[in-house]
Amino acid sequence: MPGYLIKKLGRLLLVLIGVSLIAFGMTHWIQGNPAELVLAQTGVDPTQEEIERMEHQLGLDRSLPEQYLTWIEKVLQGDFGTSYITGVPVKEELAYRVPATLKLTIGAFLVTLGLAVPLGIWSAVQKDKLPDVLTRGAASMGLAVPGFIWGLLLCYWFSVRLGLLPMTGEQTFARLVLPVLTLSLPLTSRYICVIRGCILEQLEEGYVFLLRSKGLRERTILWGNVLKNAAVPVVSLLGLSLGSLLGGSVVVESLFSWPGLGSYLITSINNRDYPVITAYVLLMAVAFVLINGLADLLLCLLDPRIRLGGGRQT
Amino acid sequence: MRWNWKMALGLGMIGALALLGILAPLLSHADPAATDLMLRLKPPGTVGLLGTDHLGRDMLARVLYGTRCSMGVSFLILGVSVLTGTLLGLLSGYFGGMADGAISSVMEVLLAFPGLILSLTVVGILGPGLWHTVWAICLTSWIGYARLVRGMTLTLREKEFVKAAVLGGCSHWAILGRHILPNLLGNVAIYAAANVGSITAQLASLSFLGLGAQPPTPEWGAMLNEAKGFLSVAPWMAIFPGVALVWMACGFHLFGDGLAGLLRQDPQGSSDGKECGKGGAFTGGRTL
């Protein structure tokens, strides 16, 4: 167990370093000289001298490894530079928008679990009967069609046609319903499929046969044994699905003008506000890696095969 | 090879759409980019078959020509990803060592960026535009192929026929090309069939965010982005590109599902409904 954990942690650290290198690289891909971009905010054409002074101030005249080290030192202290547009530290701009995105993501996550777990179990139990066929068909549609199409449909019906739910205005509960639904729909579809598949796979295992032959009721087998074993792959999906939630949140926030990190990213891309873009991608990747690490840990506690065997079989 | 209904239906749907895209100049004489402010927001049936958009452009022409952009670019991304991913996967799985270490760590780092976010930020840094979007999606979509091919190459490398080829004096390239690659193609095809839907979704999503195809290029995602502001006055502006996108997505999904079911069924008899879960996990990595 400790050996497995140390190996995992080491890889996690390496990935984080790689992520930081990519984010650092992005600051260097930017077309145009960052020093000129910063000076351009003043609205006056900078002289060559001013550019050189700013380059020195930003550390652009030093070697790349040196620049990386000073950059990472700042980032570790939470300093992502200042926004080119507002001049406010990027940290503050992002922190201001985190709660809105968290509300949306956590809401979508809860809705997904609330819908997918019962539907997945029901679909597996009713295999090949009408409820299963319908659920599976709906889930296939949900998987195939890009999420923003569902968003537009929901928008059209509930907001434009029926006027039930607002599209703009305060961050109220009613305003949260449509974005949360849009974000959770594709994910719910995937969960239904995976949960159903896992349960069906478990039902064919030898221990189920044994329990059945001992005369246990189907219901007892399902709730007492099968679901516990079927949970293992689902938990490993939980961490990964965070990725679709974070990626999807950009599209959904921008569709519903929800004032979170995602719509801020799009605004920043359109404004060429590079420090914000870099900080955002770094933040998201780090959050994603850490949460997946946590999911691995949870899995390790859930499944003795992993901590003893040292590897996950997928 | 036996056909199943899912595959046939999916292929039919995609084929029909591709045909519409190819025949676009015959089906609509209007220029998809020509604006006419006198004919703004006309409902379907009044001006042209599908009406006009907020700049008076013919919707039928735009949806038809949009097929070329949406579908053609998806296939381009698919081709680049399949080639790069397969090549890197083969090298990494067959030679191992430093090459494998380097390629695997690059993949691991790229996979640390959730969902669309890496593509989004790359477009953000390069600036919006269709070609930037293409490269941004390629940057992440080859990984699936490389992982799949690497894993299979690792197993195939130990097989007896490969050892026999080594003893027979085949060069590394001959072994890779003649003995290992042909054994991988089936699974790469399944993955590609499942993946192309996700590529179209990513492309449409980026365009929908205003980062992909720039106006006046007729692309469905970009058209939906424009239609967003006119949902209450001109819903047809959203309906037609939306239907086209759903049609294409479902076609690819059905085809991929059918192909996966078919190739998976072959070795071990029936696998009935279970492909839903497996198919989901297959496309799982980077859908929205």
Written description of the protein model:
The complex is a heterodimer of chains A (314) and B (288). With 314 residues, chain A is mainly alpha-helical. Chain A has a domain at 90-270: MetI-like (MetI-like fold). Helices cover 79% and strands 0% of the residues of chain A. Chain A has 13 helices and no strands. In chain A, helix 7 packs across helix 8, helix 7 (147-161) packs across helix 10 (218-255) and helix 10 packs antiparallel against helix 12. In chain A, 36% of the residues are buried. The model of chain A is unreliable at 310-314 (pLDDT under 50). Chain B is mainly alpha-helical and 288 residues long. Chain B has a single domain (61-263), classed as MetI-like (MetI-like fold), CATH 1.10.3720. Helices cover 72% and strands 0% of the residues of chain B. Chain B has eleven helices and no strands. In chain B, helix 6 runs antiparallel to helix 8 (172-208). The longest helix of chain B has 37 residues, at 59-95. Chain B is elongated, with a radius of gyration of 22 Å. The two termini of chain B are 32 Å apart. Mean pLDDT of chain B is 84; it is low at 267-288. The chains are: A mainly alpha (314), B mainly alpha (288).
CATH topology of chain B: MetI-like fold
Mean pLDDT of chain A: 84
pLDDT under 50 segments of chain A (min length 5)? 310-314
**What separation lies between the terminal Cα atoms of chain A?**
20 Å
Q: Which regions of chain B contain 5 or more consecutive residues with pLDDT less than 50?
A: 267-288
How many structural domains are formed by the residues of chain B? Answer: 1
Number of helices of chain A: 13
For the record, what CATH class of one domain in chain A applies? Mainly Alpha
